[in-house]
Each structure stands twice: as C-alpha cells, then as structure tokens.
TrEMBL record:
It comes from Rhizopogon vinicolor AM-OR11-026. Keywords: Aspartyl protease, Hydrolase, Protease. GO terms for biological process: proteolysis. This is Acid protease. GO terms for molecular function: aspartic-type endopeptidase activity. InterPro entries: Aspartic_peptidase_A1 (IPR001461), Aspartic_peptidase_AS (IPR001969), PEPTIDASE_A1 (IPR033121), Peptidase_aspartic_dom_sf (IPR021109). Residues 1-177 form the Peptidase A1 domain. SUPFAM superfamilies: Acid proteases (SSF50630).
Length: 187
C-alpha cells in the first residue's frame, strides 16, 4: 500500500516510533477483562473523574473508546455533547469543541492524554458514518453496561492511534509511550 496509517512489529519494539519512556502495566486479573488484553486504569476529563480505577481492555478490533454507561454519561455531561441520532455518536458545537479538556487515561503512575483534537472523529470521514460534514463527532461512546462488571472500558483504535502500544505476551503486560508520528494528531 502506498499510504499506511500504522505499523505492526513482531518480537520487539522500535524506539524510532516513540518518544520518552515505554511504560508497562501488568495484565489485570479481573474477569472478564482478564480474558483479553485487560488492564486497570482510571479516566479523568480535565480534573473530573469519569471512571475510578477499574478493569477494561485494550483492543485493536474496536474502533471507538467505549466507557461503562455511567462513565459515558459523566463524559457526555462534562463535555455538553448531545447524542446524534443519525450516527449514534456524541456531537459537540464548535464552541464546545473549543472548551474541551484533555481526556486522561491514567495507567499506573502515568497519564496518557487525549487532547481535544484526539477526542474527535476525523471530520473528513464524517460522511462515511452517514453524518454531516459540518458536525464535530466525539470518539467516546457507550459500552452499554454499568461499571463494576469487570470490563468497564475498551481503549479501541481511536485511543491506540495516538500512542505507541506494546502487547508483551512473554511478560503478561501492556506498554504505552508517546508516539513519534506527528501526523496522528491532526483531525
């Protein structure tokens, strides 16, 4: 392919693809997240706790970031977003977009921040969802279950495209770092 938007490396890491420290967290023992690439994390929007530390999964096969229903409601309320019935995604106005705060995924002692731009669906792709090219859609959606059931979030592709991720089977852990690929930060 002439144009690629990612890369997969087996058997190691590529230090040219990330900056700073690659930080690992152990796989969770909480079921059912432990059946997948499950980790423990908390999520904050600015300084507001959206989801207290809990188990969920990191999943390359899920497009959006999915949160337990109660956490999704807190995020929706904090952003002022409204549900767009056509796409099923949250939608914000340009003023609300300008006021968005970072969405922080706190894994161990490290926080991985999705800037406001990282929280929105690429506008050039809006019509592929059946949406309006003029709207601003968010990439956070409802998991459909309340927190406390052992799988309270899914950090999908819209999270993973912003960070360098390592799935370490040998040591039963997942690692993250800041990506060195700058084009991933523009929607």
């Amino acid at each position: 392919e002439e144009v690629t938007n990612g890369e997969l490396t087996f058997g190691g890491t590529d230090a040219t693809k990330y900056t700073g420290t690659l930080t690992y967290t152990p796989l969770t023992t909480t079921e059912p997240a432990s059946y997948y690439w499950g980790i423990n994390e908390s999520i904050t929007y600015g300084s507001t706790t959206i989801l207290a530390e809990t188990a969920g999964i990191v999943d390359t096969g899920t497009t959006l970031i999915l949160l337990a229903s109660n956490a999704y409601s807190k995020y929706q309320s904090a952003t002022g977003a409204t549900l767009d019935e056509t796409t099923g995604l949250l939608r914000v106005t340009t003023t609300q977009y300008d006021d968005l705060e970072d969405l922080n995924f706190n894994v161990g002692s490290v926080s991985y921040a999705l800037t406001p731009n990282g929280q929105i669906w690429p506008r050039a792709l809006n019509t592929y969802l059946g949406g309006s090219s003029d709207y601003i859609y968010l990439v956070v959606n409802d998991l459909g279950t309340p927190s406390g059931e052992g799988l309270d979030f899914i950090n999908g592709q819209t999270f993973l495209e912003r960070f360098y991720a390592v799935f370490d089977t040998t040591n039963s852990r997942v690692g993250f770092a800041t990506t060195s690929y700058t084009d991933a930060t523009t929607n």
